[in-house]
Amino acid sequence: xxxPSLTAAAASTQEKVAMGSEAxxxxxxxxxxxxxxRGGKKVHPAPPGGGAGAEAGADGAxxxxxxxxxxxxxxxxxxxxxxxxxxxxxxxxxxxxxxLLLFMGVEYTIxxxxxxxxxxxxxxxxxxxxxxGIASRPWLNSLLAAMNTVFVAMQAxxxxxxxxxEGRPRAAMAALMMFTCRGALGCATQLPLPVEFLGSSMDFPxxxxxxxxxxxxxxxxxxxxxxxxxxxxxRGLARLYDGLNLLQGVRLLACRGHYTIxxxxxxxxxxxxxxxxxxxxxxxNVNGGTVSGSRCCSCHKALFSQ
Length: 306
Known about the structure:
Layout: H1 4-24, E1 37-38, E2 41-42, H2 51-58, H3 60-71, H4 80-89, H5 91-109, H6 122-126, H7 128-135, H8 138-164, H9 170-188, H10 217-231, H11 235-254, H12 260-283, H13 296-304
Helix pairs in contact: 4-5, 8-9, 8-10, 9-10, 9-12, 10-11, 10-12
């Protein structure tokens, strides 16, 4: 006779098989009684693991979010070593970041210039002594104006040489864009001529006719010419033009021919329109960066090629 333990195990196994057959009708199809509603609610099978599974289902969203957050790694620059590495590798970016924080505070605390007061220009303040010296010597004012006009003529001559003699139209295209934009802005917003302005008949334009202040075409034209010289490999000549452009800016401030912002935007405008002219010519399949020929017809083909 088998032991009682074996008898109990066999009875339990037979009971489970019988219950499974009853639930599936013996052919693997669930019994209709298993889908009945109890108390108006459909019965759902319990999740694996009993109470632990139910608890995990209740807190599933919180748990998954927590695991996702713990699995995220903080960026390297958030650490002290990361910040130190940025300062070493990108000092210019760090400087501009500090400048952003500085001027965010300045713009909310700086007093504005009253409507009846003259404009505040730090460049005018820095060149006050030079302005007084030029104002007391009209001949010096005319001499400096004449020298500045010669420099403007040098810029124009170089740009024309680049397109007519060397077949490189990029500088000419940039100058056309720049002066057109400058004229439109000068008409749109006409800034008052400084009270201390020192005009001269030797200045360009002659007699200061149609004198637009914003932005400086003198400075922008020199930048365009210098950038073209660098592309052509004339780096020494480009540095010379940069130096003359700096002296030109000092002279314009001392004679009150431009505000400081006119000169700063003139530099940016020269670089911007040089870049835009390059993109335009690239779109037209024109090589504006190398010397492609010495005949005038080559630039015409470059300008009108599609």
